[in-house]
Amino acid sequence: MTEQGSGLVQVRGVDKVFTRGSERIHVLGGLDLTVPEGEFLALMGPSGSGKSTLLNLIGGLDRPTKGTVAVAGQRIDNLSDRNLAAWRARHVGLVFQFYNLMPVLSAERNVELPLLLTKLNKKARHQHVETALSVVGLQERSRHYPRQLSGGEQQRVGIARAIVTDPTLLLCDEPTGDLDRKSSDGILELLTTLNRVQGKTIVMVTHDPHAAACATRTLHLDKGRLSMEAAA
Amino acid sequence: MKYLGLIWSNLKRKKLRTILTVLSILVAFVLFGYLAALRMAFNQGVEVVGLDRLVVRHKVSIIQLLPESYEIKMERIQGVEDATFATWFGGNYKDPRNFFAKMPVKHEEFLEMFPEYLLTDEERRAWLDTRTGAIVGRATADRFGWKVGDRIPIEPDIWRLKDSEGAWEFDLVGIYDGAEKGTDTTSFFFRQDYFHESRRYGEGQVGWYWVKISEPERASEIAALIDQEFANSPAETKTEPEGAFAQGFANQAGNVGFILTAILGAVFFTILLVVGNTMAQAVRERTRELGTLKALGFTHRAVSALVLAESLVIALLGGLAGLGLAWIQITAGGDPSGGMLPFFYFAPRDLLIGVALALMLGVVAGLWPASQAQRLQIAEAMRR
């Protein structure tokens, strides 16, 4: 454990290079970022700018080629695979553009998935699932399968799954990218509530300026560098 | 246990594929059950033989006869307690398909040498008193509905009657049971003196000898002494433990054990490919989902274990259902040959081997897909 300063998320001097055959692709170069606790940060930028890569590094889904990433004072870039998985389960809630729900599981069973990694018994897991589904307003549809839900509802299930373990950090990768405006507004409202009422720290990758407008801060990423920063 | 629901749900994802895979495993294990029962039927005689008995036959072949005079010479050899002989009679009861072994024996010596054939005192006495008397095992008696007192005609195909072209007639004086479950109760024995007096040819000739020895641990040495005794004679002998003789007899139908193992090997290799392919396909189709599980905090090992568990569940479902079905069919149906395979049953030992095979199938078929799932990197999986 290394103390990294006052921000909840501390990214320092991060490079990320992908290798495709003999070609080396520099996605991020010497990137620094601090995300204070309780912030709702929007990351914008063109395709291929490295937004999702940065989100993956913050969420411990990938490792930087160079530099350090720390969350809540703990460096995560040097954790073993096993410890990193345990850290993700405890500290990170993930919301995906295409929801990434298990089609063979009902809404409640999808939300329960992260809880299977805890020591909670069945009853306690059920209670947590009910709470998370009520937060996203889908208590009535808990037995429905993803194919029986609209895109907006599926994303709500995805958010319930992300918050069911009460994580330190909520990472959203284009959460409204696959939704119509109405559903999109509902999701953004939900994220804003989670940030403002429950104090969740959120980092959201988006192409949509309307979505970014809900954030408390927006950063623009271009060619692997943070090129502009603007307060919302 | 909390992951069982997840595993089961994944199996229901492609119901038809899962059902077909399970059915193919089921069929393989039903086949396993039948082949195991068949192997048991062929080997049972070998497994219940006496350790203190040797069989002496003509060195060239079992169908070559030996002189009756060898008995006395054998009994003089150190370590030999007793010797008695029998001859393959052949013959048919009504129809050549009604096969069972028929042998003339020296009845008193025979009953002493084979205490595993159980007769009542009354039946024993009746056999001693009746020159044309014969005894038969319970399995064959039940097969043909014979009872003590019946007259059994046997049409000869090797040994003709001295004064007639007709059938040999025997009076059934006893029906013996086996002392152990595996004791053969299909054979038909009749008296040597009746055979000797009535046969048209082959006087002084017998088929083979059974030799009882006092020290089973010296079996090889005594066997060598017997063969040495008749070396360089017109009828040299080959002496071997009764187990080896029974195995050799069973192998006349071919090396049954090898044939069955080869068939099972081919079947299980095919099933291994089927299950392995099903699991590999399942992993390919679910790359993103497996990546999501890892993103949620499932370790590489946990995801790999889930895939392996699915493979195990498929193999066990098919395997146990197949073994169960085979057991029910074999137990209810019994010997499918109508009496030629009296020991045709699915032994508990083979049932356990079947369960172990199902487990092994699940593990081996799931290993490669599980390792694919383990190696899957989250960011890479999310991009697919």
Topology:
The complex is a heterodimer of chains A (232) and B (384).
Chain A: E1 9-20, E2 23-35, E3 40-44, H1 51-58, E4 66-71, E5 74-75, H2 81-91, E6 92-95, H3 107-112, H4 122-135, H5 151-163, E7 169-173, H6 181-196, E8 201-205, H7 209-212, E9 217-222, E10 225-231
Parallel strand pairs in A: 3-8, 3-9, 6-7, 7-8
Antiparallel strand pairs in A: 1-2, 1-4, 4-5, 9-10
Helix pairs in contact in A: 4-5, 5-6
Chain B: H1 4-11, H2 15-47, E1 53-58, E2 66-67, H3 70-75, E3 80-86, E4 102-105, H4 107-113, E5 117-118, H5 121-129, E6 133-137, H6 138-144, E7 151-154, E8 168-178, E9 188-191, H7 192-198, E10 205-206, E11 208-213, H8 219-229, E12 237-241, H9 242-250, H10 256-285, H11 287-296, H12 300-333, H13 348-375, H14 378-383
Parallel strand pairs in B: 4-9, 6-8
Antiparallel strand pairs in B: 1-11, 1-12, 2-10, 3-11, 5-8, 6-9, 7-8
General description of the model:
The complex is a heterodimer of chains A (232) and B (384). Chain A has helices at residues 51-58, 81-91, 107-112, 122-135, 151-163, 181-196, 209-212; strands spanning 9-20, 23-35, 40-44, 66-71, 74-75, 92-95, 169-173, 201-205, 217-222, 225-231. Chain A is built from 7 helices and 10 strands. The model of chain A has no long low-confidence stretch (mean pLDDT 91). In chain A, α4 packs across α5 (151-163) and α5 packs parallel to α6. By secondary structure, chain A is an alpha/beta fold. The two termini of chain A are 33 Å apart. Chain A has one domain (37-62, 80-231): P-loop containing nucleotide triphosphate hydrolases (Rossmann fold, 3-Layer(aba) Sandwich), CATH 3.40.50. Chain B is an alpha+beta fold and 384 residues long. Chain B has 2 domains: 4-45 and 255-383, no CATH class; 48-253, no CATH class. Chain B is 53% helix and 15% strand. Chain B has 14 helices and 12 strands. In chain B, strands 4, 5, 6, 7, 8 and 9 form a 6-stranded mixed β-sheet that branches. In chain B, strands 3-11-1-12 form a 4-stranded antiparallel β-sheet, sandwiched between helices. In chain B, α12 (300-333) packs antiparallel against α13. The two termini of chain B are 31 Å apart. The relative contact order of chain B is 0.19. The mean pLDDT of chain B is 89. At the A-B interface, α2 of A face α1, α11, α12 and α14 of B.
